[in-house]
Each structure stands twice: as C-alpha cells, then as structure tokens.
Amino acid sequence: MNDSLFKAARNSYYAEPVITTDVMSLFPEFKNVSPNDLEPVPFTQRNRVRKKLVVGIPVVERAKSYITDTLTSLFSRLDEVYRSEVLFVVMFGSRQTFSGFVMNTTKEIKWKFAKEVDDGLLQIIAIPEAWYKINIEDVPPTFNDKAERMYWRTKQNIALTQTGEVLIIIGIQEIEDICPLLQQKFSRFDKIPFFAFIVFLRVVFNYVTFLGGRQWFYMDFSRMGFIGKLFRTEELKYVVHSVALYYRYKPVDWILLDIQYCRYCRPDQSMANCNKVIKGIVIGCGATQFQHVGKVSSLSGKVQNISDKYFGKGKGWSSRNNPLAKVSSTMKCKSGYEPQRGYANNNAIWFLNIAKGGRMIVTFSAPITVTGIMLLSGVPPAAQGKFGPETNVYVSLHGSDEDNKTLLGAFSLNGDFLFRSCGTRLKSIEVEVTEDLLHDVVVDHFIIDTGVHECLASNEK
Prior knowledge:
By secondary structure, this protein is an alpha+beta fold. Strand 14 and strand 15 form a beta hairpin. It has helices at 3-11, 21-24, 67-76, 80-83, 100-112, 114-118, 147-174, 194-210, 233-246, 252-264, 271-281, 339-344, and strands at residues 41-42, 53-59, 86-93, 122-127, 180-181, 218-220, 229-231, 282-284, 315-319, 325-329, 345-347, 349-351, 359-377, 391-397, 406-410, 416-433, 441-449. It has 2 domains: 3-284, Spore Coat Polysaccharide Biosynthesis Protein SpsA, Chain A; 321-459, Galactose-binding domain-like (Jelly Rolls, Sandwich), CATH 2.60.120.260. Helix 7 (147-174) runs antiparallel to helix 9 and helix 9 (233-246) crosses helix 10 (252-264). Helices cover 29% and strands 23% of the residues. The chain has 12 helices and 17 strands.
C-alpha cells in the first residue's frame, strides 16, 4: 500500500481520528495499528450538504463488475426529492486499497457520475487494508458449529464491523439525525430491481416521518438475516461495538437479539413481557423489502439458498398490532389481498379497477384514542397504481353522530397518507375515492398508532 497516498487522501477528508480505541482493543491484530489506518480512504471530496439517509453499496472485485450499471440505473430513476435527502456511498472492499481494480473503477465512476459527486449525492471510499489483518480462520468453534460455518459467520461479523464503522464515520460527518442503512457485502445490490428500490426509499422516509416522535431501536425491512435493518446513527455505534465484542462467539443476528434483551428486558420478568417490550421498539415494516437476490457470492464457494417466498408479493410474516376493527370495502379486491387481512396482518390490500365512490371503512370494536394513521399506496406487488389527491380520508369522532364525518385529508401525489395528533378519539376511519381511477391500487403499511407520541398541542386535530 502507498502510505503517502493513504495519508494524503485521509487528511483531506477528516479533521481528526474517529475510530475509537475501545473498538480497536477488541482485536489483538490492531495492537500496532494507528486509528488513522482504520478509517475509510476517501476518493471523492467530503459532502458539505447534510443528508438524512446514507446507503452503503459495497463493491468487491469480481470477473464482471456491475457497479457502473447499478449507478446508472439508480440515478436515472431517482426522484429529485431524494437527491437532496440521500447519500450513496460506494465502498470498495479489497486487500489492496489502491489496486488497479479500485483505482480504475473509481476513475470510471467519477467520470460518468461527476454531477452526482459534485452535488453531494455520491461518495466513493475504500475500506483500508488494516481491517484485513483480523484472523478469521482460526476462531475456536462455538455451539458445535463446523469450521466452515465458523469461518463464514465470523467473516460476516467482521464485514459488518468494517462497514458499520465506515457508515458511523460518514454518519457523524454527514447525516442530520438518521439512519445508516446497512447492506451486507453478500447482498447483491446490483441485482435489485431499481423501481422497487425507489419505492423502498419512499417507504423508508414515510416510516421515519411517521415514527419521528416515537422511541425505536431499529426498523426491520427484511426478515432474512441481517439485511434491511435501519438504525439511527447514534444507535448504530452501539450495535457495531457489540458485534466487535462478540464476533468470535455468536452469529450477528444472535448478537442483535442479545442487545435487545440486555437493553430493554428485565431479568425479573417473563420472556413474554420482554418480547412485548421489544415488539414496541423494533419496528416491523411490513412485507420484506430487501433480500439476497444473487445465489452465488463473490466469495468463492459461498452459496445462499435462503429466501423469502413472499418477497415482492405484498405478504408479510406477522400481525400489524392494529386495534381490533371490522374492515369492509365497496371496492372489488384481489383474492388473498382483502382489506380485513391487510388491516390485521402485514399483507397488502389490492383494489381492482377502482371507480368513483369506492370506499373502505374501518370500524373499531370500541372507540379508541389514535395518535397516528399511515396508509401507503403505489407499493408492490403492483406499484404503478396509486391513490392521490382524489382519495380522501375521513374519521368519525367519538361522541359525534354516525353520519357526521370529519375530513382528515387526502393522499399525496406520491400516494401516501400520514396523519399525526396528540390523541384523537375515533369510532371509525373511511377512505373514499372521488374520481374514476380505472386501474388497480395496492395499499400497504396500514398502521393505526395508539402509542405515546411527542407532539405539539397545535398539531392535535
């Protein structure tokens, strides 16, 4: 490695070391390593515009590189609103930081995407060589795992520690208040359908906005291992430190469970109570939005056969925890995607060929105090059709006549409806379409929030 190149690149980017010695002390291989040598090597200028979300795109050398095709498809489909909100970070993982592959690919990216780099939408960094000093081949087995299993799970833990530390540094420097998105090296970002990814960004920002006043540990957009987990910047550092602490002993998803139990559960109470508490701070975000698409990893010999059979079909694996209610509709629905099922479970509602006057009514079993309502349309499995300003949302307030409806608002042009209050006591909610749409609309992420939410009295309706 060219030490002068490393120092020149790093010194132009960071004012002072950010990697903490407590993380370094967990790895004996770092005994004679400087904190500076563990910080990402930047190949672009530091972004000067504060962003809300950072998406890491790990890149490793392979026979066919997809990164430029990935970025071309991504940026050509990215709505203007997200260009000011999101930072994409291409992260090279290579034992030779300044290898021909890294330098040539960096040059090509900077030439093809000069505007995105200049606008602060794209950064390029490399994980420094010092991280590859960690010995992952001779870790003593635990839980009767075979040597091969020990190698791969340890490698995953180290990969998370590497990329997590990188995203923490970038988050400290660049992110306003939320949320590095972790993407494992094995997850083939270059194979994700890009329209689906743009929809995913919209879903993420809606959840962040909707839950902005609530306490949460992380948002879960996938049930497959450790992908699709969304953390606030300040939370991610504790997760990464815990993974670094226990990387030799447990798989990463087990470590994450241990963190939850340690932080949120009392030893003198039952596991049922513990799980109830965790369910309130780990936000399940509906059907799987992310999963491994490529079967064959860039890591020689590694094959991933696990997948979610409902991925992209608008079907989830758990209930929504919405209050008890009867849900009916005058609009025809696709079989398996009925309103009652979509209200109670993480399952999309699929309306067919919608005409003016179509309604969906949610009648609560008893009047209930609601602090938030969210419905998102234009999502998989039929993301092209959505509700808009022609679709109104009404409520019947507790104590009012059955026919006395109050207009809360309408769906946005993007197909979203979000409502927040300090507490509004409701008997029912009604969604009404005021124009012929004559196309299908899928509604998902149907959430009725009754929890405590920080708000101003002036926001109450």
